[in-house]
Design brief:
It is built from 6 helices and 2 strands, in the order H-H-H-H-H-H-E-E. By secondary structure, it is mainly alpha-helical. Strand 1 and strand 2 form a beta hairpin. A two-stranded antiparallel sheet has the order 1-2. It has one domain.
Amino acid sequence: MGVLRHLRRTLQPATPTIEVLRQKFEENPLFNKDRMTWSKKRHKEKMSEILLDFAEPWLEDAPDFEAKRDTISFAIICWNCAIAQEQGAEGNLDMVLEKLGHGKDFVKEFKSFAEPMLQRKKMLFADNKRFIMDWQYVEDDDCEHLYVVSTLSQ
């Protein structure tokens, strides 16, 4: 099974509405209401648009909705890994993948796919430190929408 298909099966995105995403976080026992703020304030750029720009070179080759969703999923994982690496968590990706039960061959294959995206994040989106908390990619009436919950910019 390929890396993208395996990740899609193990990392299915949540329900599409922001309210449902908000409820999901608030019901989580690890959620700390004193440290989390929900803001309706718009940033200069929407994180969904930034992510689509980030993944654009790979999305161009995606033949259908499922392939696009897989690509976005992988791009978000790479985006968050790049931010974690910038914050000093260099070896954590290997450790997390191995603890999830993936062998060294899977980790090696994953990293070969991830490296171009990690480099793209560092080169073109280095100033954006917003971590992706949850997302949903949906298809409605021949339109595709990406919904994203992220941390606030610092």
